[in-house]
Fold this sequence. Notes:
Blueprint (H helix, E strand, L loop, with lengths): L2 E3 L10 E4 L1 H10 L7 E5 L5 E9 L4 E8 L9 E7 L5 H11 L4 E5 L10 H21 L7 E4 L3 H6 L6 E5 L1 H5 L5 H8 L5 E6 L7 H9 L3 E3 L11 H18 L1
Parallel strand pairs: 1-3, 6-7, 6-10, 7-8, 9-10, 9-11
Antiparallel strand pairs: 2-5, 3-4, 4-5
Amino acid sequence: MQRYFLEDSLSSDQQTVQVTGDVAHHIIRVMRMNKGDKVYLVFQNKQSFLAEIAKLESTEVVFALLEEEKEVKELPVDVTIAHGFPKGDKLELIVQKTTELGVHSVLAFPSDRSVAKWDAKKLLKKQERLTKIAKEAAEQSQRTYQPLVELLDTKQKLLKKFQDYDFVMVAYEEAAKQGECFKLASFLTKIKRHTKILVIFGSEGGLSKEEVKIFLAHEAFIVGLGPRILRTETAPLYFLSAVSYELELRLKN
Length: 253
């Protein structure tokens, strides 16, 4: 069933919702929906409701709210992926797939080995594109939260964000080469719900030793992602899959 993220919050006694703009255009012109068709509407306060089209006009759709969606779609912890600028369109893939896997937000930054060089104008344009990709992926994967995407122009801005998280991890390929494969598993068995986690990944070629030292000096810690060396676009997906298995699948069984 089609799902739409709205920029409005929902009041406690609200029974109908008026939708205009891009969402209304998509419903009317693209999906060609009719009165009586149902969709899910997701509001800014993360509430999701099954809604039925009560009235259609040329630029507006009025929905009657039927019932709140009860199924939990979000990870029990907030995971933010911080990724060094990768080449080509890899960041689009990373945003799309990490959104499907439950990421809370995605940050990108110029790492020491980043080949991609984006000026302020291109950063803004790319961030707008990535935000749209995250929104579409969140709708497709039936989430109740649209991840934030932010492109940082310096590594210092990433370091300043460390204080916003309970834990900061560095996924470092040298740890995998040295056989470190227990810290992540051990960490996930002890983590509490609603914990805020930042995980840093390098671009192609991985993180440099110098920037890893800087991250560790700011109280981050290193984790390995198994015995194999993963591509830059694969590593965040591995991490989120491990989180999902440990905190959603294994604990429910």
